[in-house]
Amino acid sequence: MGANISGNQQLLINVQKKIQENSQEVSNLETKIDKNQSELTSAQNASAATEVKVSGVQTEIGEVKAQINNANKIEDEVDRKTALKDFEIKLSDLSKMEAELKAQKDKQDAQVKDCQTQDTALNTDKTVKVADGDTLKTEEADLKAKIEAEEKAEAEAKAKQEAEAKEKDATEIKAKIASVISADEAQGETKYSDEEISKMIYDAAEKYGVDPKLVASICKHETHFTQEKSGYSGKGMMQLTTISLKDMYARKKIYGDELKPLLDKYVDADGLKKAIINDASVNVEVSTALLKSKLKSAKGNVRIALQNYNGSGAKVKYAGDVMSRYKEDYGSYPQNMKFADTTIRKTVKK
Known about the structure:
The protein is an all-alpha fold and 350 residues long.
């Protein structure tokens, strides 16, 4: 992964961490707001209750004052003084209670005001934090888009590089096979150029996931790359036999998915026989598909697959000869295939 992508990913991690922190801060503020709202409600309820008490005391004070006025009208001085003394004591107690209740209510009102001020401040902080969170989420989305674009560009560059490397390898392999064909003095007359034959071999091998040099070695051993060579049994460049063609149709399940598209395309053995005689590309493709099925049956063992491909009494010698040609032309013996690597690359269209 490139430096820019790594840098943006680190930025993304930092932003996501800030988003989590911001979310936690908003959650904490909401908890504080809920708690403050509860305290505000309690303070408001307490203030209202105290106000009711103050009102009740004031009503009593009014009643006592009325009683004092009535007492002042008592003619007997002794009775008047006695009555006034009792009412004045009661008035004093009520006035004191009123003052205490008013002080309590002032304190409760101050608490209400503080809670309201705190509520405003907390909600303001929450609004700011929510806005910060939205900004961070926008930044997160932008970074994700950048990373996705960069990863896509990097993947495309890698794919292009791999395609170019694959094309280079393909060109080198086709050129090497063409040179082997050109150097084969035993090749008979054919309407195909060395390059055309090389391309047929490579394309078929690539399609079925088989070593193109192995296919070329079979072509060389069978007919020295001569498509027009057809005897009583073997037909075309890779000498497919009528028995093999009929067996393909008789036991489709034995050969697996590799041959099914080809067998479906040509309906029966006679139709496929005509095709492999008249068209070298069909001959090579069908033969390569057959080789692929043999490789799968042999769990990727090239020597056993070659023996099964030949199927004659001399099949052991046949496999050894093909492998020897491979080493002579390409410098090493063919490698066994891993069975997991034997999937078909493409499907033949009907």
